[in-house]
Amino acid sequence: MSRRPVNPTRRLVGNGGFPLMGSFPSKTRSSPLVSLTLVVLGVFLILGYMYSGSGEFSGTLELQRAIPVLKKAYGDGMGKVLHVGPETCSIVSKLIKEEDTQAWGVEPYDLEDADSNCKGLVKKGFVRVADIKFPLPYRPSSFSLVIVSDALDYLSPKYLNKTIPELARVAADGVVIFTGFPGQQRARVTELSKFGRPAKMRSQSWWVRFFGQIGVEVNEAAAKKFEQAATKQSYQPACQVFHLKSSH
Predict the structure, then answer these.
(1) pLDDT at residue number 211
(2) Does pLDDT of 26 surpass 60?
(3) CB neighbour list of residue 210: distance below 8 Å, 6 or more residues apart
(4) Nearest CA-CA partner of 60 in 80, 88, 97
């Protein structure tokens, strides 16, 4: 038994797709200029979707962009820095290349996939693995500045109320936190086994309220200097940046 011909335009629309130009009868074919315009528009839409729809965020990459701004804002406060967060080897490697800057790092998770450079930093004692839900293995004011990225978004308030004061304890001049905006995503499915839980991006009002609840003060003077330095260097953060006072 013969099958009834299927209208290709109807089939594509029914499946939620856009009909191709070749699926229309010849009498409705658009001019080459219109076709080219539609193709260009489609490319921009796809690129826009890929850029904004994924919502992925990397505090490590953002921190690398912000290092010149931090040096301008904190000055001598960048003399002895502790970075806390995943991929800390890349941050420490970049910081120690800066003039008048010493750097150490704490990797909160594991270093199973560490490269030779990272293994070298661990061997020399510049980087160590430590669970930041527990007290850090440093004395009070061991560092001038503590910078955190991609680490606190994985902790619940139960642990944050211990970890953040601990970061402030080992800092002499303050703590800088890089954290995502609500709606941004950090961990992929394959990373859940490493981080233990998906990252939770919280709002600015949530963080400010939480800082007050645990008795940690926002460093408004440092935040203003950072903002001024960012403006001069045309730096626009792609995440939230918080500046906290030390506990001393």
Answers:
(1) 97
(2) no
(3) 157, 160, 161, 202
(4) 88
